[in-house]
Design goal:
Length: 159
């Protein structure tokens, strides 16, 4: 990081399609006092969630479309984070929220963000995962076969 700058925390926001991830993110952006950089992952080429967030967020949104972060879009995530780090002096921010598509297996993304040997670790530190679950999907999510994988670096309780 730039001299005197500390590593920026990254939070991963995930959950099933339609669970309320974007609604939760918009609420945090509307009521928060900190400057949050937002990276939206869309499975399709049309960034619907990104547009919903951008309408409420003056700092803009980086959209990663046409792929899931756990597969093809991981390279795009690295490029987006590198761009944020490079432009941090001109557009300062206190934290990063990465909202995944509802189809994502977050384990590969968590592993990437937890890798202290990765060059991204100079500028960013993994802060945790927030999983948004709606009541209708909770039983499916809570079953062992559907529970999200965490990449082996999550510690502490999940609320």
């Amino acid at each position: 990081p730039a001299q005197g700058a500390s590593r920026v925390p990254i939070t991963l926001l995930t959950g099933f399609l339609g669970a309320g991830k974007t609604t939760r993110l918009n609420a945090a952006l509307a009521h928060g006092k900190s400057r949050i950089a937002v990276i939206e992952n869309e499975i399709g080429s049309l960034g619907v969630d990104g547009a919903l967030v951008a309408n409420r967020h003056d700092d803009g949104v980086i959209e990663l479309t046409n792929g899931c972060l756990c597969c093809s879009a991981e390279v795009d995530l690295v490029a987006a984070l590198e761009s944020l780090a490079h432009h941090r002096a001109a557009r300062p921010f206190d934290s990063v929220v990465v909202e995944t598509t509802g189809l994502a297996d977050v384990a590969p993304v968590v592993s990437l963000l937890c890798d202290e040997e990765d060059p991204l670790a100079e500028d960013f530190v993994f802060d945790g995962v927030i999983v948004v679950v709606d009541a209708a999907s909770f039983r499916k999510w809570a079953s062992e076969s559907a529970a999200p994988k965490h990449g082996g670096c999550l510690e502490g309780p999940v609320a």
